[in-house]
Amino acid sequence: MNLSLTLQNIARHLPDRPAISSEGSRLAYGAFEHQVQHMAGGLAERHGLKPGARVALVMENCPELLPALYAIWRAGLAAVPINSKLHAREMAWIMADAEVKLCLATPKLADGLSAPGVATGTLPPIVATGSADYAGLFKSAPVSTVPGDAEAEAWIFYTSGTTGRPKGALLTHRNLLFACHCYYADIDYIGPDDTILHAAPLTHGSGLYGLAHIARGSHNVILPGSFEPEHVLDALVAYANVSMFAAPTMVSRLINHPRAGSADTRGLKTIIYGGAPMYVADLKRALSLLGPKLYQLYGQGESPMTITGLDKALHADAGHPRYEERLGSAGLARTGVAVKVVNEAGRELPAGEVGEIVTRSDCVMKGYWNNPAANAQALRQGWLWTGDLGSMDGEGFLTLKDRSKDLIISGGANIYPREVEEVLLTHPAVLEAAVVSRPHADWGEEVIAYVVKRAGTDTSSEELDRLCLDNIARFKRPKGYRFVEALPKNNYGKILKTELRAQLKLEGQR
Questions:
Q1: Residues 6+ positions from 200 with CB-CB distance below 8 Å
Q2: Is residue 158 within 8 Å of 64, Cβ to Cβ?
Q3: For the chain, which domains are there?
Q4: DSSP state of 402
Q5: Does the pLDDT of residue 294 top 90, yes or no?
Q6: CB 19 within 8 A of CB 214
Q7: Per-residue pLDDT averaged across 14-24, rounded?
Q8: CA atoms within 13 A on the CB side of 467
Q9: Beta carbons within 8 Å of 24's beta carbon, 6+ residues apart
C-alpha cells in the first residue's frame, strides 16, 4: 500500500498531535494531511503530472520536505530526493537521468540550479519553497484517495557507482514499508510520545527513518543547517524519548563536545548509527556517557537501512567474553532478512571466511533505473550482491572487512575515486590520476589524489582544487595532492592503489 496511507490514518486518529517542528514552527498531523491533500492536487492540476512521473526534492533540511514527499506519493508520483551537498551540475545530471518532470527546491539551491552553464540539457521546471508558485500548489482541489499499488516506485535513491556516475535504486512502497516494520521489530517500539530528531539529511537515512515515525504518529523535529552537537544536546533537554540517525562521525563529535560529560541526556532514547565503521573505543566512550542507547545498522541504498544490526542489548552486554569482537561487528540479520557471505560463484562460505555479502528481503530494491549492466551485476541468483566484503561467525554476527572495491567513506558520505579522477583528468596538464583514502581522526577517511603531469606542462594543488570545486561536491574533493613521475602498475597496466595506500601509511609513520 502507498505510504501516504500511514499519514492519513494517523491524521484521522491524532489530528492535533505535533507532527513536524523546526525553528519555532509546528505542524500538527491534521494540518500535515491537509497540506498533503491539496499539494497532491496541485502537482496534478497545475503541472499536469501523471501517476508514475518523477519529482525531484532538492532541499536542505526544512519543514517543507516531508509534506512535499507525502504529497508526491498521494498523487501517485515517485520522489527523487537529492543530496543538498552535491554540486548543482551533479544535481542536474541526476534529474536528467531520472527523467524528472518537476523539481521542488529550497531557494538557495533553486538559484544554484538556475545559474548559467549548470545543465547541459533542459532542466525541469523548478519551484522554490516560499515562492508564489509554491503557494499555488496548495490551492487545488484536495486528493484524499490513496493509490493502492505497493509495487509502484516511491523513492529513487541515487547512490554513487564504481563507474563514476550515480545509479538510481528504485525503491517501492513495499520496500519502504518493510523497512519501517523492521524498525519496529528490531530497534524500538515507537508511538505518539516519541520524537525523532533530524540532524542528518532528510534526503537520506534520517528521512527514511522519519517514515517509520510518521506511521506511528511520532514528533519529527528538524534541526536546520549542518550538524551541531550543541543543538542536539539542547534538543535532548527540550524533548522526550528522542531518537536520531547519525553517521559515526556525528556520534564522535557529540561525545567529544565539551558538554558531553555534563549535559542532561535523559531525553535520549536511541541513537541509530551507520554508514561507516565506528571505532570500538568511541563506542565504549559513547556508552559510558549516554548509556545503553546505541543501535548499529548496516544497509545500503539498494536495501535501505536494513541488512544487519547490533541492538542496544548487545551494546550493553559488557560481560560477554566476545564483547569487543561483537562491538566491532555489524550485528545480526534483521527480522525477515536473509544475509550470507559467498564466493564468486555464489557458494556460501564457512564461518570466518571472507567473501562478498549478499542479501535478500522485501527491502531489496526493484532494480537500478535504466542500467541493465548494473542490474546484472547486483541482482543475481535471487540475491542483492552488495559489493562489500565481510565474514560471518558461527553465531551469525557479520563483520565488514572492506567497502565496495575502492569506496571512500568520509564523514559518513560515500566517495567513489573514479568520479574524482574523471574530473582531474579533464585538466590539460593531467596525464594520469589515482585517488585513494588515508585515515582521518574526525572523518574516518579523507581523499588524497596522486597526479602525473603531462610532459612540458604544469599545474598546482590550488588549480586542481578549483577544478574539483567547480564540478563536484566540496566534500568529494581531495584534501591533499601528490605529484609523481609515474603511478605503480601491474603487468596488465592496472594502477596498484594498494601501493599508494602503503606510501601514505609510511608518510604517516615518519
A1: 206, 227, 244, 245, 246, 247, 250, 412
A2: no
A3: 1-149 (3.40.50.980), 408-509 (3.30.300.30)
A4: E
A5: yes
A6: yes
A7: 96
A8: 18
A9: none
